[in-house]
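Phosphoenolpyruvate/pyruvate domain-containing protein (Fistulina hepatica ATCC 64428), 253 aa
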Amino acid sequence: MPESIICPLRRAIKAQKPALGAWITFPGAAVARTVARTPGITWALIDAEHGLITDSDYYNMVNAVAACGVSPIIRIPSDEAWMVKRALDSGAHGVMVPMVNSTEIAAKIVSACKYPPEGIRGFGPMFTHAAGALGDDYKATANDDLVIAVQIENPNSVKEIDAILTTGVDVAFIGPFDLSVSMNVPFGSPEHEGAIEKIRLACKKAGKTSAIFCLNGEQAKMRLAQGFDMVSVSTDIDSLGNFLTAAFATAQS
């Protein structure tokens, strides 16, 4: 049997260990490597939805992250099968898909991530070096080892969360800001937090990974204490901006 894909995030999930990650919005291997060298990080999200990253950046960035012993996860712009294929064929250890607002969309994403007979993914892993294998060796374990994360950020996906978790997804990743907007309730309100807790409990019941976007260490610590399995801790652009603001304030004080 070939060795499984080298996926630190998958290992953390299997071991039921908290998985802390960071958001990368700037293109380039140098930024990716810098983020991936952060002590305690398990995964790095390469953001091709809202970030400045395109699929021409994928290969170098995922290899830079994976070389640091961290899982590169690519957030694609939409739930298109060809976008899934481009991300995974670059060697990403998994994908994150935004606005998965129904069970049908979740099932479509899972199918796009899996090789036949479990799905429809086309075969061509010629550049999957960051996943630790190429060709048939890669294909042999990809269906089981790659991480499929769907973003829950709409009232309908909250309503259908139990069914969404039966489709084969690994991670329900809450986008709390979009969820607040789509629910038309204030961020942090009882209604908002109630929906977040409903998702977390559904994941626990289904044996899936509950995850949520956080902007800083304080938020991440709070969500981990609530029982979330996977949290973001910061973004590259926020970290840069916050550090510069603090440094300039100190210099001028």
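Residues 10-133+141-252 form a domain with the TIM Barrel fold (CATH 3.20.20.60). Strands lie at 19-24, 43-47, 71-75, 94-97, 147-152, 171-174, 209-212, 230-235. ok done for today
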